[in-house]
Design brief:
mainly alpha; 5 helices; 183 residues; 2 strands
Length: 183
C-alpha cells in the first residue's frame, strides 16, 4: 500500500507542478544518454568516428539542459513580475512564457553555445573531427555516339538530364546544398 500511495503522491505532485522546462530537461537527459549509446553500438562505423560523434552528442545535451532550465526560469520570472496583480493570469502567463523561453533556448541559445563551446572542448580532450569521405563532384559522362548539340536538339530542354555516378536515377538539377520543400 505504501508504494501505491507514493506513486499517487508523485503523480499528483507532477501534475500540479508540471512546468515545460521539466519536460524538456527530461527529454534532453534521455537524449544525452541514449543517443551516444546508440551511436557507440553502430558496428558499421569507424571507431574514431563513433567516439567523436557520441561525445559530441553527449556534450550537446550537457549544454542543452542548463540552457533549457535557465531560459525557461528566466521567462517564467518575467511573467510573474509582469502579471503580479492577477494570480490566475500570472500562473498561466508563467507557464506560457516558460514554454516560449524553452523554445528560444532550442532555437537560438543552444546552437550558439554549442558552436562556441564544443570545438574547444573536443580539442582539449584530443578528439578532432574524423576525416570522412569528401563530397565528390559529378564526373562528366560521355554522351552517346552523337554530339552534344545533336542530342539536345532531339529532346526537349526539360529532358536533358544530369547523370550522377553514385545515383541510380536521373535528375534534372544538381542534388547538392540545402533544399527546402522537396522541390
Amino acid at each position: 500500500m505504501a508504494v501505491a500511495d507514493l506513486i499517487k503522491k508523485t503523480c499528483k505532485s507532477l501534475g500540479e507542478n508540471n512546468k515545460p522546462t521539466y519536460v524538456v530537461m527530461a527529454i534532453a537527459a534521455v537524449k544525452g544518454i541514449c543517443r551516444p549509446a546508440f551511436t557507440m553500438m553502430d558496428k558499421t562505423e569507424n571507431p574514431e568516428t563513433k567516439k567523436y560523434t557520441a561525445l559530441r552528442e553527449g556534450l550537446t545535451e550537457v549544454i542543452a539542459i542548463p540552457a533549457y532550465w535557465g531560459c525557461g526560469e528566466l521567462a517564467g520570472k518575467l511573467a510573474k513580475k509582469a502579471f503580479n496583480s492577477d494570480k490566475a493570469l500570472a500562473n498561466r502567463a508563467e507557464k506560457n512564457l516558460m514554454f516560449i523561453g524553452v523554445c528560444t533556448a532550442a532555437l537560438f541559445v543552444i546552437p550558439a553555445l554549442c558552436s562556441v563551446a564544443i570545438k574547444p572542448i573536443m580539442h582539449k580532450i584530443g578528439l578532432k573531427a574524423p576525416e570522412g569521405h569528401k563530397n565528390e563532384e559529378p564526373k562528366n559522362l560521355q554522351m552517346p555516339a552523337e554530339s552534344n548539340q545533336t542530342a539536345m536538339l532531339k529532346t526537349p530542354a526539360s529532358f536533358n538530364k544530369i547523370i550522377y555516378p553514385k545515383m541510380s536515377t536521373f535528375t534534372s538539377r544538381p542534388q547538392i546544398g540545402l533544399r527546402v520543400g522537396g522541390l
